[in-house]
UniProtKB/TrEMBL annotation, chain B:
This protein's UniProt keywords: Signal
Name of the protein: Family 1 extracellular solute-binding protein
Residue ranges of coiled coil: none
Domain of life: Bacteria
Signal among keywords: yes
UniProt keyword annotation of Phosphoprotein present: no
Signal peptide location: 1-28
InterPro entries with a match to the protein in the record: Bact_solute-bd_prot1, SBP
Length: 295, 430
């Protein structure tokens, strides 16, 4: 009897997990394995000849010959700046929009809206704003800040990418944090009030610590998406001026499709994968520890 | 036991569902893909063309319709993409949907794709190809792999009316003359130049090509770059070209935040007197501001009129046939019709406004517009430099473009710029 049950379990498992495992194998595991093989070759992506070159591709990456390190450094910087700003702004918006404001819901929708648009389109729209919109405003109001060549210099192009990233993603963090803030029991807040805690103190000492699990999620999501930045990069700056805003993903794309160095690109993609894995695991580990300390 | 059977059925159903999903995905593409399309009905065959000249898209579709009217059993599916053309093509190859006809750029690009292409050497029109057109699409094995779409040339596109307003009666053919004209344009309150330095494309392809094309023997120079006997560093011709690039940038406006769209808009609106461009701009000008009178003029880098009164020209691309296509014969017939019959030729020259890479028929001066007419005149007089981008290692044009951006932004000086060209070449050539 027991044996029969086990037999049935097998069918049940196969039924529910079989198809998804098959799909997972076909679209994740096998391509991943193949890309590991390609990363040791000098394949150009098209021809039938594939020559294996050992660790050559990885050598080129770590010796700085392949420009991957430049892209890595740029990506780290922009991730640091935009993750900080996205989360700060997201939390601020959430705090503001959980207060009893008129038109609260339309505002929530408005701030969330950029998130629903594709990054590619956002990039093109903002490219127009930076090239034509800002100078027009600057000319009318005589403000030098607006008339500068936003996408033409290294620093302002960096700033432009940060602006678009923050504008696009702050709404998402806001939604998560609104959920967090409205989940806090009102009794707790009231008793704090009775005890004489001021609003700022209540926020920093009670609300924020209770939101830490949500902050973990927001951080994880913003960090991994900033590290993988691609569409906005491609459509807003194309990595320019002079390649100074090339993210890791864009660099891989260029090597694979423009430079026809498919082998090198897959090697870079592997390194890219390991970097993201490392950074996000460290972040998850640290914020989980923080959570267990507080809660 | 009954329960097991029930589960088994469910498993089958869910698997069938997955299969049905994938099958649907396959079917969606059938409209584009002749390989599956032709199996649907034996009579009509569809030729799938994927090409990179977005500006001839409409005219090409019209031509295809005319051909379908003559041959009702041939249908066309035409897709024109300019940005990311080659990425799209590689994706199509990877998914097993390589088009029947697609654009190949010649030389390096030919080497890349040669193993997928049909040999066209025995086609009747290959003997009529002009040498400039033939050398780019002839493989190392001496076979011809494509049909030249168009000869294209570039220089400064200038606005004739603004030149008149500034009192300029003839186009400059030396650097000194150019500088004088720029000054008189400025004093007339006209923006003399604008360059699209935000995109790497023009800088990397057109500006750097000037240096290579002006070498005594450009092909030998490129060969020297590959085997290490020639270098950009300290090359006198490249120094002149670098000075010219700097001059062009300095007299433009906001170059590093001007992209191609921006540049074209300013030209079409008559806001600028000169800008880097070529005869491919004609359809855009005709659509945007038909009354705009433009011309194509040289890019002088020194004061020797003979060296400078020239444009730069090359074949912009070739249509090649996928050797595994099911409609190879039909495509060959179509190509024959296009370039050997008067009707097809008219479509090439009048509708698509192309300058043919064939000696058997020539461009129609009335329809190719001002820019094409100027280019055609320079071609006839033999006053052209070649276009050598297609000989570069893959990715070099973009790297060159970024080097030019760094140079005009003042990040590197002239020597540093030439060194950078060299470094990028070496990095990508291996």
């Amino acid at each position: 009897m027991k044996k029969k049950k086990k037999y049935n379990m097998l069918w049940g498992n196969l039924l529910f997990l079989g198809p998804s495992t098959l799909v997972f194998l076909a679209v994740v595991v096998i391509p991943f394995a193949i890309s590991i093989i390609y990363s040791f070759s000098n394949w150009n992506g098209i021809s039938n000849e594939i020559k294996f070159v050992g660790l050559n591709n990885f050598n080129n990456i770590f010796s700085g010959k392949a420009k991957f390190l430049d892209a890595f450094w740029f990506t780290l910087r922009i991730t640091a700046v935009s993750v900080l700003l996205i989360n700060l702004l997201g939390i601020l918006l959430a705090v503001a929009l959980t207060a009893r404001l008129p038109l609260r819901n339309p505002f929530r929708a408005a701030f969330y809206l950029p998130q629903t648009m594709g990054g590619l389109i956002l990039g093109f729209i903002w490219q127009f704003i930076f090239i034509a919109g800002f100078p027009a405003i600057g000319d009318k109001l005589n403000l030098g800040f607006f008339t500068q060549q936003w996408l033409g210099t290294e620093k302002t192009a960096f700033a432009a990418l940060v602006i678009v990233n923050v504008w696009q993603n702050a709404g998402y963090v806001m939604v998560i944090m609104i959920a967090a803030l409205s989940g806090i029991s009102s009794e707790l807040i009231e008793s704090a009030k009775v005890d004489g805690s001021r609003p700022l103190n209540t926020f920093l000492r009670i609300k924020l610590p209770l939101c830490v699990p949500y902050i973990t999620v927001s951080l994880f999501w913003t960090i991994s998406s900033a590290l993988k930045m691609f569409e906005t990069n491609v459509s807003l700056t194309k990595g320019g001026p002079y390649g100074s805003t090339t993210s890791m993903a864009l660099n891989i794309y260029n090597d694979a499709f423009a430079n026809n160095k498919y082998g090198l690109a897959t090697a870079e993609a592997l390194v890219f994968f390991v970097i993201i894995l490392a950074i996000t695991s460290v972040q998850l580990y640290m914020s989980k520890r923080k959570e267990s300390q507080i809660l | 036991m009954k329960r097991t059977k029930g589960r088994l059925t469910m498993l089958c159903v869910s698997l069938a569902g997955v299969l049905a999903l994938t099958a649907c995905g396959g079917q969606a593409n059938e409209g584009q893909n002749s390989q599956t399309g032709s199996s649907e009905s034996a009579k009509t065959k569809t030729i799938y063309i994927y090409q990179n000249k977005i500006e001839i898209d409409k005219a090409l579709k019209k031509t295809a319709e005319a051909y379908t009217a003559l041959h009702p059993d041939i249908q066309f599916s035409i897709e024109s993409v300019s940005d990311n053309f080659s990425t799209g093509l590689k994706t199509k190859l990877a998914s097993g949907e390589l088009p029947d006809v697609f654009t190949v750029l010649g030389n390096q690009d030919l080497k890349l794709w040669q193993s997928q292409l049909e040999d066209l050497t025995d086609q009747p029109w290959t003997k009529d190809m002009i040498p400039l057109a033939k050398e780019g699409i002839t493989g190392d094995d001496g076979k011809v792999y494509g049909l030249p779409v168009s000869v294209e040339g570039y220089g400064y596109v200038y606005n004739k009316k603004l030149f008149q307003q500034a009192g300029i009666s003839k186009v400059p053919v030396t650097l000194t003359e150019l500088k004088q004209d720029v000054e008189s344009l400025k004093s007339a309150g006209i923006q003399p130049l604008v360059g699209a330095y935000m995109d790497w494309y023009q800088a990397g392809n057109f500006l750097v090509n000037m240096g290579i094309a002006r070498q005594k023997d450009p092909l030998a120079f490129i060969k020297g770059l590959y085997d290490g006997t020639a270098t950009f560093v300290g090359n006198e011709i490249f120094k002149e070209v670098a000075d010219f690039i700097q001059y062009d940038f300095a007299n433009g406006k906001n170059g590093l935040s001007t992209n191609f769209n921006n540049q074209t808009t300013q030209l079409v609106n008559g806001e600028i007197a000169m800008t880097l461009g070529g005869n491919w701009l004609q359809p855009t000008i005709d659509n945007g501001n038909a009354s705009l009178e433009t011309g194509l003029m040289p890019l002088p880098v020194n004061d020797n009129p003979e060296e400078n009164d020239k444009l730069y020209a090359g074949v912009s691309g070739y249509w090649a046939i996928n050797k595994d296509s099911n409609v190879k014969k039909e495509v060959k017939d179509f190509f024959n019709w296009l370039v050997t019959t008067p009707e097809g030729q008219t479509h090439m020259t009048k509708d698509m406004q192309l300058i043919p890479g064939f000696s058997s028929f020539s461009a129609d001066n009335e329809t190719i517009g001002d820019l094409g007419a100027d280019l055609s005149r320079y071609l006839k007089e033999g006053k052209v430099y070649g276009s050598y981008n297609s000989y570069y290692p893959d990715g070099v044009a973009q790297a060159f473009g970024e080097a030019v951006q760094r140079f005009v932004a003042g990040q590197v000086d002239k020597d540093g710029f030439l060194q950078e060209l060299q470094n990028e070449w070496d990095r990508l050539a291996e």
